[in-house]
Design brief:
This is Lipoprotein. The N terminus is likely disordered. The strands form two sheets. Strands 1, 2, 3, 6, 7, 8, 9 and 10 form an eight-stranded antiparallel β-sheet that branches. A two-stranded antiparallel ribbon has the order 4-5. Helix content is 44%, strand content 24%. It has eight helices and ten strands. It is globular, with a radius of gyration of 19 Å. It is of the alpha+beta class and 234 residues long. It has two domains: 164 residues, no CATH class; 32 residues, no CATH class.
């Protein structure tokens, strides 16, 4: 359950950051996850995501004018596998967000992201991004719960913080509906909950994520075609 363990480590880092005000807590959690052998950065692609996914490619995929896009290249964490390239368009869409007892409409940007480029074996990819059984989802939720309660017992976090993090973590672990994709790469997995396509080819992987109005099947096909374009450039 490497993927689930990684979620726990990141989650605990987030809780620590909120409790102690330690700006390095999340990155420390990431480094701990790396030490567990979860993934290895593909240094060859550091700082070059915009060469794999150009503005023109993104605009063609989304069907929006390139000149209206905003570009954000996030390199906050030192590990290149956490770098993310985002192209966004403000098309006036909104989504509901609940704050306390109120529900308000907030901007919902159309977005295309390339991230998660890293070295990985095909065996590990197929294991980490396989279709999960209900038992595995339940096990991952219990793993997170036990880890949080251990921190409560040590006085590191409060029960309220554990409950908040537990609810967030259960969402991460529970929303893992997956579909195997055979049309691109040596192996690929579509996660409709967050509209992400994970692609493996020749010892490395990457992730494409899209936020756009449309049927899940249509969004998946857009990313499959885009992933094929990226692979053809490598």
């Amino acid at each position: 359950m490497k993927t689930q363990i990684f979620y726990v480590l990141i989650l605990l880092g987030m809780v620590s950051c909120g409790e102690k005000g330690n700006s390095n807590a999340l990155e420390e959690a990431v480094k701990l996850a790396e030490s567990k052998g979860l993934f290895e950065a593909a240094k060859a692609y550091e700082g070059k995501l915009n060469e794999l996914l150009t503005l023109e490619m993104a605009a063609n995929t989304m069907g929006f004018p390139a000149q209206e896009a905003d570009v954000d290249y996030n390199t906050t964490l030192s590990n290149p596998s956490f770098h993310a390239l985002n192209y966004t368009w403000d098309r006036g869409r909104t989504r509901p967000m609940t704050v306390g007892n109120m529900t308000v409409q907030v901007p919902d940007l159309d977005r295309l992201e390339l991230s998660g480029i890293q070295k990985i074996s095909k065996k590990d990819f197929e294991f980490q991004y396989r279709v999960l059984s209900p038992e595995e989802v339940q096990q991952s939720n219990q793993l997170m719960k036990d880890a949080l309660q251990d921190r409560v017992s040590k006085g590191e976090i409060t029960q309220d913080q554990a409950d908040l993090a537990g609810g967030f973590g259960a969402g991460l672990a529970g929303n893992q509906t997956r579909e195997q994709v055979t049309e691109v790469g040596e192996a690929a997995t579509w996660m409709p909950e967050d509209a992400s396509l994970y692609v493996y080819q020749d010892g490395f992987m990457f992730r494409l994520t899209i936020n756009q109005a449309g049927e899940s099947s249509v969004l998946k096909q857009k990313l499959i075609l885009l992933a094929d374009q990226i692979l053809n450039k490598l």
